[in-house]
Amino acid sequence: MFSFLQRKTTLCDSGLLQGAADHHSHILFGVDDGVRSLEESLAILDWYAGCGISHLWCTPHIMEDVPNTTDGLKARFQELKAAYKGPLQLHLAAEYMLDNLYQERLEAKDILLHGEDRILVETSTIAPPLQMQEILERTMSLGYRPILAHPERYRYMRPEDYSRLQSMGVLMQLNLPSLTGLYGKDVMARAQWLLKRGFYHLSGSDCHREGVIRRQYGLKVVPIKFIESLKPIMPPYTGEE
């Protein structure tokens, strides 16, 4: 009788996040444009655990404008792990801009991997880097598999660009808040298009601030059919992908 009342829910209340992994976040404090304090990092982790997330990847920026070092990020990550006493399993990788610094680090094999052999990469949202395909091909020739962060946010990409990257073997990571309108209607439409056609391999929050992610996951109401469409890319995390 009242089934219409059950047609919408929040991401946190939906059960979708139960046992899932957040593959992209900026909650490692004080290293980029993300979370600034240890206290905020810990608050986010506690809230995520309450939503059912079991694994979280800290993926701070590494780019020419934010030249974080591998050793520096590892040291800060150990501070976070030492302070956090909750159930979430924490992992460290990075989000690399496809720029000159990335190519230098790649050749030196000075890379924070996302799992065994994957590298999370990004570009500007408005224009591709020079020789983008060549950089990705070089990455793969060295035995790594690129994960393109939030492809729905790249305004310069056309359908054929996504298809070409997919055929190369590039993985794609969805920002969940893209589907709830955080970045605007155009990005939301792109995300829906990519999701429907099976381009995404994994997902993440791209969390930079506690308040934003609480609104997106805990207050933003979304249709049940939206939750169902996300289940194929958000299985309980086993570490084998």
Regions with little confidence, pLDDT below 50 for 5+ residues? 1-5
Question: What is the CATH first-level class name?
Answer: Alpha Beta
**CATH architecture label:** Alpha-Beta Barrel
Please state the overall shape, judged from the principal axes of the Cα atoms: globular
How many helical elements?
Answer: 8
Radius of gyration: 18 Å
Could you give the count of β-strands? 11
Mean pLDDT: 95
- How do the strands of the widest beta sheet line up side by side? 4-6-7-8-9-10
Helix- and strand-based class?
alpha/beta
The H-and-E topology, N to C, reads as EEHEEHEEHEHEHEHEHEH
Might you state the CATH topology name? TIM Barrel
Characterize the main sheet.
6 strands, parallel
Number of domains: 1
Q: Would you write up a description of this structure?
A:
- This protein has 241 residues and is an alpha/beta fold.
- The protein has one domain (3-233): Metal-dependent hydrolases (TIM Barrel, Alpha-Beta Barrel).
- Helix content is 35%, strand content 16%.
- The protein contains 8 helices and 11 strands.
- The chain has a 6-stranded parallel sheet with strand order 4-6-7-8-9-10.
- Strand 8, helix 5 and strand 9 form a beta-alpha-beta unit.
- The radius of gyration is 18 Å and the shape is globular.
- Residues 1-5 have low confidence and may be disordered.
